[in-house]
Amino acid sequence: MSSSNASFDVVIIGAGPGGYVAAIRAAQLGLSVAIVEKDKHLGGTCLLRGCIPTKALLESATIYEQSKHAADYGVIVSDVKLDYEGVRKYKHKIVIKSAKGVEYLMNKNKVNVFKGFGFIEDPHTVSVTNGDTKEYLTARFILVATGSVPRDIPLFPTDGVRIINSDHALEMTELPASIVILGAGAVGVEFASVMTRFGVQTTLVEMLPRVLPIEDAAISAELERALRAQKITVKTSTKCEAAKVNDQGVAVTLVDGQGERTTLQTEKLLVAVGRRPISDGIGLENTRAVVEKGGYIAVNGFLQTAEPNVYAIGDVINTPWLAHVASAEGIVAVEHMAGHTTEPINYDRVPSCTYCEPEVASVGLTEAKARERGYEVKVGSFPFAASGKARILGRTEGMVKIVSDAKYDEILGVHIIGPRATELIAEACVALRGELTTEELVRTIHAHPTLSESVMEAAHGVFGSPIHI
């Protein structure tokens, strides 16, 4: 085994949206940077096996569904068919082009890329093993951005064929006739939206009382109605007790809230019950960093571990598992390393986006959480059914809901379900960042006809005076 040595200001382990964004920012601040990645391509789970490929599938599903209803808009599209191999090629093209974009950014910012497995030998040394080659990188700072992998359930581990996880689902070469999806969080409802529009008989199972349980209760209820309208079978307050592979696929035994058992026969079972951090086997034991229950690395507000020159970001710490959170954390971490003015992240102001049909997006406190924190709450909402632009799009499901502090009128949370919700939420993020009042949002003139008018109308609703309902 050959070896070599190199020295850098910061060595980053993992080239996902946390790691590669941190690398760019560190280079901008004048630090010498190395990034270590074991995958063939840069981009991490988000780009290679998560955000990007799933959204490509969702876009194909949307176009397929719209094409079948094109006559409603006066456009005749005949003999609409789904070419799933074409869908897969489109997804792959987007992933590869995006990965090459990350490579370009590394070159542009003079970030040194090392392909191989990164291991922390001591608080200032990272080894990179790639086949018979082993390199040692000396670092003033180490940033752990190793991400996460799908979580297996010991009772019915995935086999990649009949019982699958999200990684396997993205690599399917053929669509199943039926699928049971275990877990109605973001991953579960997104895959349900894809599968049902592709013609797959879809059942969505959630142990908790509602789908997207982290979202505002009113939004979850609206989404469940929409999913059922798409002929997705939704089973909430239901546990999966067993999954037995057989010649026809998988026999899935479910137990509902009343203790009643049923067995469903399905071609595939997709386990979408969460992910686990990649914090073991990377050498953290060779530092003073503390790994807590669940595999999370303990950090302070500046993402430092108990080993002051070792930082951690993204899915390996106990913060929202979102690509944009990892990116923001990466920026804070390297700014702190460089002695640059920075500030801890306010996780109450992190947007959450789910790209199912209809889309769901939120930022800030739910109505229930605001009341738990002692706020006297005022709420306003506006249905997309009353929006002229939503009618033009033919997508009138959903609403905008605003949660406001009754005492000071500060906007506490904005929750959206409906067309392009994941784009509309940006305005709400700015409003919360600027600590705007609901009245300021009311007084902000919105262009007509747009979907964003619905945000303004929901603000009017806080005062009991929406204009268009």
What does this structure look like?
The chain has 469 residues and is of the alpha/beta class. The protein is built from 13 helices and 22 strands. It has helices spanning 19-28, 44-49, 51-68, 84-108, 166-170, 186-197, 217-229, 323-337, 367-372, 388-393, 421-433, 438-443, 453-462; strands spanning 2-13, 33-37, 112-115, 117-122, 125-130, 133-144, 148-150, 163-164, 178-182, 201-205, 233-235, 239-246, 249-255, 261-266, 268-271, 275-277, 310-312, 352-354, 359-364, 377-383, 399-405, 411-418. The mean pLDDT is 96.
How is this structure best summarized?
The chain is of the alpha/beta class. It is built from 13 helices and 22 strands.
CA(first)-CA(last) distance: 72 Å
Largest sheet: 7 strands, mixed
- The stretches of 5 or more residues where confidence is low (pLDDT under 50) are none
| Count of alpha and pi helical runs | 13
Helical amount: 25-40%
Percent of residues in β-strands: 25-35%
Radius of gyration: 24 Å
Give the averaged pLDDT, no decimals: 96
Judged by helices, strands and strand pairing, the structural class is: alpha/beta
| Dominant shape | globular
Please count the beta strands (DSSP E, at least 2 residues each): 22
Which key features would you list for this structure?
single chain; 469 residues; seven-stranded mixed sheet; 13 helices; globular; FAD
Element layout with pairings:
Elements lengths: L1 E12 L5 H10 L4 E5 L6 H6 L1 H18 L15 H25 L3 E4 L1 E6 L2 E6 L2 E12 L3 E3 L12 E2 L1 H5 L7 E5 L3 H12 L3 E5 L11 H13 L3 E3 L3 E8 L2 E7 L5 E6 L1 E4 L3 E3 L32 E3 L10 H15 L14 E3 L4 E6 L2 H6 L4 E7 L4 H6 L5 E7 L5 E8 L2 H13 L4 H6 L9 H10 L7
Parallel strand pairs: 1-2, 1-6, 2-3, 6-17, 8-15, 9-10, 9-15, 10-11
Antiparallel strand pairs: 4-5, 5-6, 7-16, 12-13, 13-14, 18-19, 19-22, 20-21, 21-22
Helix pairs in contact: 1-8, 3-4, 3-6
